[in-house]
Design goal:
Blueprint: H1 5-9, E1 20-21, H2 32-43, H3 54-74, E2 81-84, H4 87-99, E3 107-111, H5 120-129, E4 132-136, H6 147-151, E5 158-164, H7 176-185, E6 189-193, H8 205-208, E7 212-215, E8 226-230, H9 232-235, H10 261-275, H11 285-314, E9 317-319, E10 329-334, H12 339-348, E11 351-352, E12 355-356, H13 361-366, E13 374-378, H14 385-396
Parallel strand pairs: 1-11, 3-4, 3-5, 5-6, 6-7
Antiparallel strand pairs: 2-8, 7-8, 9-10, 10-13, 12-13
Helix pairs in contact: 2-10, 3-10, 4-5, 10-11, 11-14
Length: 400
């Protein structure tokens, strides 16, 4: 089933500004139903969660509905869905909790492909516990991070492996299930950063083999917050810091303070919007999400191939997104022109494609780009052929 990009675009008010937007990896634009859900939540009575007053019931229902929606999106159990301010905050909270069981001689594995939010929290927690950090490299020529790269650093003392499901810088999609099997084979946990991945592919917590996984709704048409998913049984084994009167139930024991009810309402609406990308898809919300992401991948891959062909025809452009399996995210540089200047030129042509390392500092340095990075072009459900044409035309007019 094909995606109707025009129908999607008609429901996203921000696109009326006229820019061709390729900045989706940093955050997508917001559909009207998501905006409406946030406004409706704030327009109705709200109170601390409970079942006595209308405000209490509204808040309680919003949380339950949001957990159910994100569980459907991630192939998870609603009882294992934790909300937080951001994926970074959730990774820090989780790392500090897990590190209480680490000590000298224990080992933690991180990769140079990852966003720093899936590196630094683990590195810092390991250092505080006296544990050893093991680094997994990737091949800068191909952009590939292979399971054998991970296997080479594993040992019986490995306590956790942290890996991305898709690089936010160059789009590489490692074989996470294979990495999970290797990690579990030595008795280690696997934490998966799915922030970029969840924007482009159907997520299945069990199929990936992740013990914990994080994503961010603002990367897939929703509001700014973070989500962690895990098996409820695993969460029951963890004892995070919490206030004395706060609930000790799972998943509430991991959620600090009052939840942002209006943002949760928006996150639920974003999942429902994604589930309806293919209006004729049958089944429940999870089934429709799987159908939507299949159509989305086909739509985005076709546009990505057009961009790659166009970049190759322009000459003087080096593309670093080379992995066999990758998201529709392209990082490139132009010979003789700084990435920031390329981005400014594109912005002057109403084409939004930012430049930098995008917090994937280890990956950018490994690619030889330093902290300056490159220009990143990323696609979203609302990307269209006209956007691609405008991008290529603007690059063709770039002063060299």
């Amino acid at each position: 089933m094909a995606l109707d990009a025009d129908a999607i675009r008609s429901r996203i008010p921000a696109l009326k500004s006229g820019s061709a937007r390729f900045d989706a990896p940093g955050g997508t634009q917001t559909p009207q139903p998501v905006i409406d859900a946030i406004a409706e939540a704030l327009s109705r009575p709200l109170a601390n969660r409970g079942r006595t007053t209308e405000g209490e019931r509204n808040a309680d229902d919003i949380v339950a509905e949001a957990r159910g929606a994100l569980a459907d999106l991630l192939g998870a159990d609603p009882r294992g869905v934790v909300f937080g301010r951001s994926a970074t905050q959730l990774a820090y909270d989780l790392s500090r909790t897990l590190a209480r069981t680490w000590g000298p001689g224990d080992e933690v594995v991180v990769t140079r492909l990852d966003h720093d939010s899936n590196i630094r929290p683990w590195v810092q927690a390991a250092q505080a516990a006296g544990a050893t950090v093991r680094w997994v490299d990737f091949d800068p020529e191909t952009g590939e991070l292979r399971p054998e790269h991970v296997e080479a650093v594993l040992s019986p003392r490995t306590r956790l492996v942290a890996v991305t499901a898709a690089s936010n810088l160059i789009g590489t999609r490692p074989d996470v299930p294979a990495v999970a099997a290797l990690a579990h084979g030595v008795g280690a946990l696997l934490h998966v950063d799915a922030v970029h991945y969840a924007s482009h592919a159907a997520v299945d917590l069990a199929a990936l083999g992740a013990d914990t996984l994080v994503c961010s709704p603002y990367k897939f048409l929703g509001p700014h917050l973070g989500v962690l998913a895990a098996r409820p049984e695993f969460l029951e084994t963890l004892r995070p810091d919490k206030l004395l009167p706060s609930s000790d139930a799972v998943p509430e024991r991991f959620e600090l303070g009052t939840l942002p009810y209006e943002l949760l309402a928006g996150a639920r609406a974003a999942v429902d919007f994604l589930a309806d990308l293919v209006p004729d898809a049958a089944g429940g919300r999870r089934d429709r999400l799987v159908a939507s992401f299949a159509a989305l991948e086909a739509h985005e891959d076709a546009l990505r191939e057009r961009i790659e062909e166009g970049l190759a025809s322009l000459g003087g452009i080096t593309v670093y997104s080379r992995a066999a399996l990758r998201t529709p995210t392209l990082l490139f540089t132009v010979a003789g022109v700084r990435p920031a200047d390329v981005s400014r030129h594109l912005a002057g042509q109403a084409v939004d494609a930012p430049a930098g390392s995008f917090y994937a500092v280890e990956a950018a340095r490994r690619l030889g780009l330093g902290d300056e990075g490159g220009v990143r072009v990323g696609l979203a459900p609302y990307s269209c052929g006209e956007d691609v044409d405008r991008l290529l035309a603007a690059l063709g007019g770039l002063p060299r």
